[in-house]
Request: fold
Amino acid sequence: MPASTETETRAEERPADDPALEVRGLCVDLHTAAGTVRAVDHVGFTVRRGRTLALLGESGCGKSMTAQAIVGLLDPVAEVTGGSVTVAGTDVLRLSPGKRRKLAGPVLSIVFQDALTALNPVQPVGRQLAEPFRIHRGLSRRAAREKAIELMASVGIPEPRQRARSYPHQFSGGMRQRLLIAMAVALEPDVLLADEPTTALDVTVQAQIMRLLRDLQTEHRLAVVLITHDLAVVAQRADDVAVMYAGNVVETGPVREVFAAPRHPYTRGLLDSVPEHARRGERLPAVPGSPPELSAIPAGCVFQARCPLARERCVTERPVLAPVGAGRSAACHFSEELAHA
Amino acid sequence: MTTTADPATGSAPPEGAAAPPGARPPRWWRLLGRDWAAAVAATVLGAVLLVALLGPLLIGDRAVRQNLDASLRPPSLDHGFFGLLGTDVLGRSVLARLVEGAGTTLSVAVPAVLCSLVVGSALGMWAGFHGGIRESLAMRLADAILSFPSLLIAVVVLYVFAPSVGNLVAILAVARIPVYLRTARAESTELRSRLFVDAARTFGTASWPIIYRHILPIALPTLLTVATLDFCFVMLTESSLSFLGIGIQPPEVSWGLMVAQGRQYLQTAWWIAVLPGVAIMLVTVSATVLAAWVRLATDPAQRWRLTLPRKRRGTRPVTPEVTA
Amino acid sequence: MPETTLERTPDAAPSGAPLLDVTGVRKTFRSGRGRLTALDGVDLRLGRGETLGLVGESGCGKSTLARVLLRLERPDAGTVRFDGVDPFALRGRELLAWRRRVQMVFQDPFASLNARMSAADIIGEPWRTHRDVQPTAQARQRRVRELLDLVGLREGDAHRHPNEFSGGQRQRLGIARALALEPDLIVCDEPVSALDLSVQAQVLNLLADLQRRLGVSYVFISHDLSVVRHVADRVTVMYLGKVIEHGRTEEVFDRPLHPYTAALLSAAPTLDVSGEAGADREIPLRGEIPSPFDIPSGCRFRTRCWKAEDRCRDAAPPLRTRVVDGGDEPHEGLCHFPLEVAG
Reply:
């Protein structure tokens, strides 16, 4: 897809180092039977244009809720209780719902995991792809349709003109994911959130989709937030990583450095439990236990119950995310010990 | 627009949002107490049931006692307790007739709905679970019943046989079987391919135990919801039949019959038709509200939502962060 | 892990005869769009106490094969022999007895457990059909406790419902249910792919422990190559309803015969962050898996294969074998132009 001059000028207006997305101290509370629990606890990170940040964590760690809070799609039982999400210089959490909707698409957009439920099953995909152009750009039906076909071609859908008349179920899983990505980048946003974009796909198709995302990112200088539980995907595709555990970011930094020498015992445990490193038949070094229930998150370190390094200080004092090197930080009292291990 | 999509595929609450581990689920009456609408509905239904059972003992023959001097009195406080809701054209107390009618109405509608619910659901679940020829047979049966105008069969049957409460119940029950049959079949067809049904098959479990254990408990809330809606339909059909003179026979009285009889006085004495109509509506709405509540309360994965204030419950299921 | 009465020595049958022997199994489904070929002449062998990894992408027929093995689906042709017995010839009592010996662990720990039943009811469900296994209520209760303990859950968990468990715990529950009838073979259909990494390792360890202690055999279906490599003794790779490669795990992973296996191996992302190696070793596959309604002629992989020539379209690929050191167990692949075959 040819980059329009509009985006180019927009990009030039701001210095290149200005973060496209800046999240600070984001807190999300869940109202549940057991009372109110904190699902996302002072999460912060920044992503610059052209860079990919991976939000890595297991289910229930709050990574998807963080994404939902950023794009404003939280479930009614969840509520943002603090922090800021700055996109293109404005804090979107302070905007009215209407103003916020105007940002969805041209500035900030999201790709979901499940392409089949994210597309309208009773509308031809061409019309669905044309919709953002009609809503945000006010294009005519015909012009929007041409745009949609252009877009389908740009994400590698063969014979886009014919396929535009097809319905979502007539596409394969990989093609549907391509359509979703096309929709997300239609209005050339600054920031793209991808919530487990390839998890539902086959391995060989996964690789294709990841390549497509990378190409689009280079072309549009997108800032990408990649939400995933897959360490290998992070290793291959992300520049920086924020590891989340029980609603907290426990370690951040450039992927290469973090994966080569993790400074938080949880990151270390995750990396160790990948079967790739173990010999066949040997026991895998699993992290014992499971993440704490949100209603029972301990006062001290969130990881203490499963941590091999845990001692008294971890019970009483919650470690803060502190710098442990150039561009790296970890929330552990004893991260020094991991550095020398 | 991608942002309009909802990735939720499951209905489980987010991790940690469920009741704390080991905690007993709250007792049902506590849950009921937290939900004012369901509590009101339960109270209304309880009151109607009580009136239907005990009412006739208290009113004596006032439901049929005529007093032409008191004809068509509007509701007022001037004529004692039984004059509260006015009188009909023969001067009979509308209040007394409502009380008397509650018993008759429920004694037709409840058994009729129960019969069609049980027979239709069993047939439908069986048909949907097995598929193939059994499913086709059951569905053709449903089509056959639906293809006759039920009012017409009712007229014929009730004309040939005596128009008794028993025959009325039987006719209404048969006429409504297809509704449950189709709903149960749809649920069952969907559920039979679920993994836990496959799991049960791998143990060698026979089909009726699987239906009873895995399909019924999940299909039941839906079927009960259909039944509450059907309750209203059955009451109205009964009133039409009564109006045609082949349903409830005067001097017996039902709400439907009262509506039918009061219709011609609607412009001069609205209370005769409107009040039994309101009674039918109250019972139906209460039953529907309560059914919706039961639906949530019997689902272990959704029950916790009932402890939240209504506005926070949400209309869509919470997105579980399933990394599948 | 404490001693329990579940301890068993593997059956003392002659080790030569495989526990599971599947030959030429074919299964097609008819639908509005035509005939869908799910399995097209599948062979499979599994020894006692062993793990067979079954690898393939969606539509390759691995789930249908699992359903055939569990006798949930009857094949159109071919034979299934379990310990010398054809399960499809069994009826009544004999069938029930056979059912006890083969169980399944499902992929989705959410969908495979009835949310309305408690953990104890779920584990004990098989006994409601097989009453003789645990005849008294007390015995049932005791065994539920033992099984909970065996899979690493707490006794107090017996009365909780599935939604109160985490994904990993739910899968442990599914495993406990599969163990309730003390089977010889457990078919694991993607048992860890819905689980988090740290929990995945726990469940893989649990499955390995159970195999060591109970001598149970596994057919382990997965799309995750690193997991299969870790657990399987032998690997069978499927593509569009056909086995295209089979051999010992190290052989298949280290020296794949079939281009598809090689592509799969290269597409799986690894943790290697050392450099741009990832981009170099990646074998780009064209397009996606063809529809099983319309399987390509000749070699079914030719539409995506970078080595495909005219011959691949015209003739079915021959069976290639590479004899491995030791001799008795060849590494087999179906391809006209196999990768690095000597001779």
Q: What stands out?
A: The longest helix of chain B spans residues 94-130. Confidence is low (pLDDT under 50) at residues 1-23, 315-324 of chain B. The radius of gyration of chain B is 24 Å. DSSP finds ten helices and no strands in chain B.
